[in-house]
Amino acid sequence: MKGKKAKVSYKKAANAKGYEVQYSTSKKFSQNVKTKNAGTKTSITLSKLTKKKTYYVRVRAYTMDGNGQKELISAWSATKKIFVFKRVKNIIKVGQS
Q1: Strand ranges inside the chain, DSSP E
Q2: Residues 53, 36, 38, 78: is their CA dihedral positive or negative?
Q3: How many other C-beta atoms can be found within 10 angstroms of the C-beta atom of residue 84?
Q4: Burial grade of 31 (CB within 10 A; 0-12, 13-18, 19 or more)
Q5: What is the DSSP letter of 42?
Q6: Nearest-angstrom CA–CA distance, 1 and 35
Q7: Of 29, 47, 70, 71, which sees the most CB atoms within 10 A?
Q8: What's residue 92's pLDDT?
């Protein structure tokens, strides 16, 4: 397997049409930031993570306005810290407020 993976799951938010998951090697999300659109799913697998490295993950929910544009309905969740092990499956649960 090339690279490592981590599964991120979160609770469903009322009226949400989709979720954005953001992860970074920086605790304050100031560098190496990647954002994935999870659609309506309440979990997503982050892939191509570096072994023996710490990542920080957060989630937010959005809905769509009349023009099909994203409209945020929640702020970023509390940040969760994950460490990518060599051979262990990484699973993290992020609380959605």
Answers
A1: 4-10, 18-24, 33-39, 43-49, 54-64, 70-72, 80-83, 90-94
A2: positive
A3: 18
A4: exposed
A5: S
A6: 23
A7: 29
A8: 62
- Residues comprising the chain, all counted: 97
pTM of the model: 0.82
pLDDT of residue 73: 87
With tokens 């993976």, the residue in question is 5
pLDDT in tens, the chain (97 residues): 245 888 899 999 999 999 999 999 999 999 999 999 999 999 999 998 988 899 999 999 999 888 888 888 899 999 999 988 765 455 566 665 4
- C-alpha triplet 61, 27, 7: angle, nearest 5°: 55
Q: Cα(62)–Cα(59) distance, rounded to whole angstroms?
A: 10
